[in-house]
Structure formats: C-alpha cells, structure tokens
Specification:
There is one protein chain. By secondary structure, the chain is an alpha+beta fold. It is built from 2 helices and 6 strands, in the order E-H-E-E-E-H-E-E. The protein has a 6-stranded antiparallel sheet with strand order 2-3-1-4-6-5, with helices on one face. The protein is globular, with a radius of gyration of 14 Å. The chain starts with 9 loop residues before the first strand and ends with a strand.
C-alpha cells in the first residue's frame, strides 16, 4: 500500500520520559527520513531540572528519504504520534527500522490514529 498520496500527510510526535539527548536522537532519526518543522540545529532543551519535559515535532511523511539506521539510546523513550492511518504506518515503519519498538497503546478514530510506543535501542 505504498501508493502516492494526492496531498501532504503529516504526523505530530510527542517525545517524553527521557533525556533531552535521547529526544534529539529520536527527532534526528525521524528528520533523516521525513521533512520536519524542526530545524537541523534545533536541539531539545531541558527547561526545568525536575519537571518532566515533553518535546514536540511534526513530520511530513508523504515522501521518505533514505533513512533510519539503528540508533543508540541511553534509555527508553516514550513517543506519542497522531495522524492519518497511512501516515502513522509510514512513521511506524521508520521507527521499526531504527529502534526496538514496543506498543503501549493505540486508538483509532474516523480519520486519525494515535500511537503510543516505547522506543529502545535495538
């Protein structure tokens, strides 16, 4: 089901439960695969010492670039993604090629799907 899409398909991704370094690894890995609203030099910032952080990015998944080599994380990373069914599948394929992915939950609606996964080094 890898047919061309008549319009752009984007997925919003939230990264949490990890260090800013691991968040950057996930965003950089996805940024190699897809166009993103995050600049190449845009590093996640830790704004508070003790409060949990959530980092956001949007990835345009219609076109896939040569990408997603296995990436090393220092610990597990929680990722939440929202987008259309086709777009979520494209994102999931990229995540599977770079990380060990464990499904935590998913929810499906009429037009959108939510995916909640735990990413770890392969």
């Amino acid at each position: 089901m890898d047919r061309e899409r008549p319009h752009e398909e984007s997925v919003s991704v939230e990264i949490s439960g990890c260090s800013k370094e691991d968040a950057r690894i996930v965003f950089d890995t996805l940024g190699e695969c897809f166009a993103s609203d995050r600049g190449a030099d845009e590093a996640p910032q830790q704004l508070h010492e003790t409060r949990p952080m959530v980092w956001l990015g949007t990835f345009e998944v219609t076109e896939t670039h040569d990408c997603a080599r296995p990436a090393r994380l220092s610990s597990s990373v929680e990722a939440d993604a929202q987008g259309g069914y086709w777009a979520i599948e494209r994102l999931r394929t990229a995540l599977d090629s770079a990380f060990a992915v464990r499904d935590l939950s998913s929810a499906s609606g009429d037009q959108e799907r939510e995916l909640h996964v735990l990413l770890e080094s392969r």
